Amino acid sequence: MKRFTEGLKKGSIMLVDTTLRDGEQTAGVVFSNREKLRIAKMLDNVGVHQIEAGVPVMGGDEKEAIRQIASYGLQASIMAWNRANVNDVRHSLECGVDAIAVSISTSDIHIKHKLRTSREWVLENMTKAVEYAKNEGVYVSVNAEDASRTDLDFLIQFTREAQAAGADRLRYCDTVGVLEPFRTYEEISRIIDATGMDVEMHTHNDFGMATANALAGMRAGARFIGVTVNGLGERAGNAALEEVAMALKFLYGMNLGVNTKDFLNLCEYVARASGRPLYPNKPIVGSNTFAHESGIHADGVLKYPETYEVFSPEEVGLQRQIIIGKHSGRKAVKMKFVEYGIALSDEEASDILEAVRSAAVELKRPLFDKELMYIYEDYLYDTKRPKKNNGFGEETV
Ligand code: MN
Description:
Bound molecules: manganese (II) ion
Largest sheet: 8 strands, parallel, barrel
Shape: elongated
């Protein structure tokens, strides 16, 4: 927990990863204990500040995995999730975690229809659980579930009472993903102005804005950002660790010391463990993010990568790919053949490009290296030219 303690001291922006809790709550996803331990270690190596490891009161394997993760002595703080009751918190403390999340609904819709109780009951139970945990000397986050549909005056009252009970931060949960960045900014500003409480953004992606909302909250003063690898999580998922971390680095110029080069490894591992493959256009780590096919883009990237890339693929463990297909240009074809040790003339490249385009349309996809070689062989045969010398700078006969 050294990294977390230092972050607290410095007042830096911190990443709270909940892949092992909210991520595993994705319908149909289960991690084995071995996978959980591996993911926790990978998250720690990447440099997240806090890992929400699970829900101890579930007992059995779940509790055992949390206990083991807490025993590793990682740089990240290990947090366990609890409902607002003393029994849940007791299970968490038995795991040896250094941080506790106490979660309770604050919106009237949840209080009335799910908990079937009153705001007073919510305040009272939150206070009891927080006071109990603080007496045991752990860090406490109070999670306002469904905060984004909560009456703001009540949310501020709830935050003040949490503060009075000794809570260290408020987790603002956009449980059903209904925030948009402008409202997020307004609301988080008001909560922080009114209470001075540390705030964590916990955003869901139901309208595709989880990352945007998390960053808007940060701009309004929230110091903690809740994330999951690949944006795993309930329904449409959470803000993605890799998106938030890269946005902080490249759009805000913030150095959180995150080891982004391991992102592809981490994201692929979690994709396999969760049975949710990375889709090709997944921001940051999708296979398409550094693949260029269109003639204009490929030409630009080959001349100067920054023309069409904000950061280099190596930054996240990927490699640039020039795809040869329907949208390719002559220059990309020439460059591709240089990779095979063949220097094409402009005329040859134009002829081959024509054949490439009709093959790509017929197949409805870009071409594999082998298919490009067949096209080249057919071309040589058709034009009955003598075979060229291989290699660079050789003249065509
Ligand atoms: Mn959630």
